[in-house]
Amino acid sequence: MKKTFALLLMCMLILSACGANGGNKNTADTGNAGGNTEAAKEITIWAWDPAFNIAALEVAKAQYTAANPDVKINIVEYAQNDIIQKLNTGLNSGTTKGLPNIVLIEDYRSQGFLQSYKDSFYDLSNSIKGADFADYKSGPTSLDGKQYGIPFDSGVTGLYVRTDYLEQAGYKLSDLQDITWNDYIEIGKKVKDKTGKALITLDPNDLGLIRMMIQSAGSWYLTEDGKTPNIADNAALKEAFEVYKNLTDSNVANVHADWSQFVAALNNGDVASVPTGNWITPSITAAADQSGKWAVAPLPKLAGNDKSVHASNLGGSSWYVMNVDGKETAADFMAKTFGADTEMYQKLLTDIGVIGTFKAAASGEAYGQANEFFGGQKVVSDFAAWTEQIPSVNYGVHTYAIEDILIVEMQNYLNGKAIDKVLSDAQAQAESQIK
Amino acid sequence: MKSANATLHSRRRSGLTGWSFVLISVILIVIFYFYPMVEALILSFQTGTGTNLVFTGLDNYKRLFQDATFITSVKNTFIYLLVQVPVMIVLALFISVLLNDSKLKFKGFFRTAIFLPCVTSLVAYSIVFKYLFAGNGLVNTFLMKLHLISAPIEWITDPFWAKITIIIAITWRWTGYNMIFYLSALQNIDNSIYEAARIDGASATRQFFGITIPLLRPIILFTSITSTIGTLQLFDEVMNITKGGPGNATQTISQYIYNLSFKYSADFGYAATVSYSIVIMIILLSFLQFKVAGEKNG
């Protein structure tokens, strides 16, 4: 009796183990659209942010499936970190099972993926033209002269300002049209004097402000080759560091530790300005009671750098087609929607607030509309104009690794370490760490 | 004779059944533990981003000693270890002795309350702590209202206080867990030993150091080893409360492994090397603890 029972138990164990295996296999299959030929007309797309990227995909999907009813498009939402992990582990394992057909990758990271996993991405040179999109997007989305990415949203930056605070300090929006970061700090001191409000809020763990400044001067953490650290002899970076220290020393900066605190600072009216990417617009307009109190000025430029312009980029991402079964369908979907459809871009803008980087879309009517929240300013056409001026830089493959080194050195600098020593130490560490 | 044979036969059969049970877990452990461990060891001798891996021998291990970020991570981890583990062990010991008092009322309630943090999700409690200790969070407001401090303490954004916040968080989370081990061990100590000590006129302190501590020695060893291993692998709290910041003031080794694999351009070879450095440290520390605390128990 005991033995029978034991045997029975064992059978159950083995069976359930097999059952679990079968279950895994099934879920893996549904995750992988291009598994077999009959499903080749079914594609899977990974992206993050339901209010922005996913919403844009839904619009594109509706457009495309209306004309191509035989294609099934699965849109899967993951957090950006999860996508990075899944892509890295999936591509590294050498099996394409479970990978999507199209994936969204942040521009700062795209070269890392393209170069680390050669041949895993599909060359789109025959489907779209890189020149149709904003020039600065070509660096991150292409490799060895081949176009791999479909440039998506613009990370074009502007200086969002509270006009009511500025007025109390005696400034008008027109005073901010052509200023340097040093002028900006002077304005901040006056604003702080008159209103008691901080000029800006900074996250010590995020050097987005530094990235904006150096890209406005056509410079980056890495040299043109995208691999050699460019820190010690980088004049733009040095000046950006000095501006950053000046901001904290002048006592015009607040500190926040994460995104929700950042948005809270804006919505509570704690700060008079935010230099950042245009994707912040929905978060600012969310505080409906502040309608008419905001405006967008061009980004200040670096005073000591004659290459610096009033335009830069922060964040932004692009679509990539993976080199798996179904790639032709996926490429066709992307080319006919994000790669060609000017009308769709108008819809993306009015419905979701996406400012694309497709050049032809900027002449559409939605781009020229005045925004009442920003006091009737034609915000989007301003952003579109600045997008064209963004200097193109090669983000290379090590942006975040170097930024983590710089974050530490920035703290040392703020605590009194000499700037040249700060940058040469960071250079030395970057050289030893990046292999 | 015949019946003896049958018994032998059935014994062998039941032995076989036993072994088949063991076999399942052995196979699973080999596939899911030992095989990846060997693969990771091989990986740790390779360098390169993504799939462009090449064998570079011991280069990765040499790189460890020049890598300032790795050294800072090790330092941070050891600060947590040296401050947090002793504090937690002493606290757990103290609470368990209090709760073991036979005259105590609502014993079940207190035990549950102190053990409860252990069943909360690591991420969930980390996020709660992050908000409690925010610049304008509950802790600062409370201290300000009591006029204990005049300006808010930068619990998350100051390098020193950020470490304190992490230590408070992990102590809160794991003290109850260790306490349970001590409680169960205390219940195994025969009450007559204490009775005899009392008759001999030993004070409560004397009883604690003369009886409780020596008899709990194996459990203390066990908890300090598991806590050491746990601290060396610390990840969730730091990732969620401070993200390793400000700068890398709270970054742990595990978080550095994560960054090397997923935050930066993936270098799985070097990440595996850093993982193996933890293995080596755990082996050394456990060996040390056995030598210091365990030798009398053989």
What does this structure look like?
The complex is a heterodimer of chains A (435) and B (298). Chain A has 2 domains: 43-154 and 314-363, 3-Layer(aba) Sandwich (D-Maltodextrin-Binding Protein, domain 2), CATH 3.40.190; 157-312 and 389-433, Periplasmic binding protein-like II (D-Maltodextrin-Binding Protein, domain 2), CATH 3.40.190.10. Chain A has 435 residues and is of the alpha/beta class. Mean pLDDT of chain A is 86; it is low at 13-39. Chain A is globular. Chain A has helices at residues 2-31, 50-67, 80-93, 107-116, 138-141, 163-168, 181-195, 208-216, 235-249, 259-267, 281-285, 327-336, 342-352, 379-389, 399-414, 419-433, and strands at residues 42-47, 72-77, 102-106, 142-143, 146-147, 149-151, 157-162, 200-202, 253-255, 273-277, 294-297, 317-321. Helices cover 46% and strands 11% of the residues of chain A. In chain A, the strands form 4 sheets. Chain A has a 5-stranded mixed sheet. Chain B is mainly alpha-helical and 298 residues long. Chain B has 2 domains: 2-43; 60-297, MetI-like (MetI-like fold). Helices cover 74% and strands 1% of the residues of chain B. Chain B has helices at 2-43, 59-66, 68-99, 107-115, 122-132, 138-145, 159-187, 191-199, 204-232, 236-241, 253-263, 268-294, and strands at residues 46-47, 54-55. Chain B has a two-stranded antiparallel sheet with strand order 1-2. Chain B is flat and about 75 Å long. The A-B interface holds A 3, 6-7, 10, 13-14, 17, 81, 84-85, 88, 91-92, 94, 109, 112-113, 115-118, 120, 204-205, 255, 257-258, 261, 397-398, 400-401, 404-405, 407-408, 410-411, 429, 432-433, 435 and B 13-14, 17, 20-21, 24, 47-52, 63, 66-69, 72, 130, 134-135, 154, 156-157, 159, 243-248, 259, 261-268, 270.
